[in-house]
Design a protein that fits this description.
About 55% of the residues lie in helices and about 15% in strands. With about 210 residues, it is an alpha+beta fold. The chain has 2 domains: about 5-110, no CATH class; about 125-205.
Length: about 210
């Protein structure tokens, strides 16, 4: 068969015994509990196959009744192995599992592939490291932006405070205002217009 050429020559086939679930009901036919009726006979794939392949480096495989069931097993055990590895911070951890799951037809094959497992784990850890660095840099830029914005606001408020001059201050700057003196009136009008424009500009910048 063409499928058999994909199976390693030293692979051992294991008879797969599906677990059968039984339920306990109360007097009103409500489910109280559910348990495996053939727990001692059924195949515990993680214990009886995955970890044995990881420890002894001997490929194992079994066959399911349909392709659909085999595909479900492929997804299920691949996910379990990955979840086992993704939480490990170091590759040398004893909890690391270097088993790769493949499906050929109705057959599920477990082989040890440490290079593939390490590459996948390393890519995930690098992604986490990059995400953490981006998050830290983003927070640092945000804090710096807030600090700069606060300084800018305080500076504008200081300008406004300094710009709120009294009549006495203005007279010290522009000279005493004299209504009967045309030159005094002209000077005050020109300087007042310039200062009003400055105040309006500062107010507009403050609102931005």
């Amino acid at each position: 068969m063409r499928i058999l050429k994909h199976i390693p020559a030293n692979a051992i086939q294991i008879r797969y015994i599906h677990p059968y679930y039984d339920r306990e009901y109360d007097e009103e036919d409500n489910i109280v509990s559910e348990y495996i009726a053939n727990e001692e006979q059924c195949t515990d794939v993680m214990r009886d196959m995955v970890w044995k392949v990881n420890d002894y480096n001997t490929p194992l495989y079994y066959r399911r009744r349909t392709r659909s069931l085999a595909q479900d097993d492929l997804v299920n055990y691949s996910d379990k192995i990955w979840r086992q590895n993704m939480h490990q911070e170091t590759w040398n951890s004893e909890q690391m599992c270097s088993v790769r799951v493949k499906r050929f037809g109705r057959r599920i094959i477990f082989t040890k592939d440490e290079a593939w497992a390490y590459a996948r784990w390393k890519k995930y850890r690098d992604k986490l490291t990059t995400s953490d660095r981006i998050r830290r840099d983003k927070n640092q830029r945000l804090f710096k932006y807030r600090e700069d914005a606060t300084k800018k606001l305080k500076y504008k408020e200081k300008l406004l405070k300094d710009a709120r001059l009294t009549i006495a201050d203005l007279e010290d700057m522009f000279g005493t205002f004299n209504e009967s003196d045309p030159q005094s009136v002209t000077d005050w009008a020109m300087r007042g217009t310039a200062m009003r424009g400055t105040l309006e500009r500062i107010e507009n910048e403050r609102d931005e």
